[in-house]
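Researcher: Here's a chain I'd like modeled. Treat it as a single chain, no partners, no ligands.
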Amino acid sequence: MRVDVRAEVVIARAREAVAAYVADPANAAEWCANVVDVEWRTRPPLREGSRLGFLTRFLGRTARYTYQVAELVPGERLVLRAARPFRQEIACTCASVSPCRTGRTLHHRADPKFGGRVPRRQHPAREPAGPAAAAERPGNQAPLMRP
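Model: Modeled as a single isolated chain. Structure tokens:
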């Protein structure tokens, strides 16, 4: 099952400020609800080739990933890639909408493996529908991305 998700938001801040915030690993848990912790695997500062260990929580499970910075264009673009436990890429781009407004796009592509089947509690046909049911399901207390 391939995952390809793109989220776009306009932030009322200058592009340089938004890009610097996103490129600082210490802020990852603030802007991504699933990130619990980030630790440096290589020495700072962030540059192409830097490695970062992410501890995440998603759908009731905890996972660890080591991302490598594949591309870094300060003030514009950051691309992180991980190979294990499955291949994935996160690309974050920032573009000026006006002097004090920035369009931020986050593009996450992944190829997760679930042993050939979707776990029963995650199967959409077996879950109750509607906003009230969604609010009660485990793992749905926080959004995937915080604008």
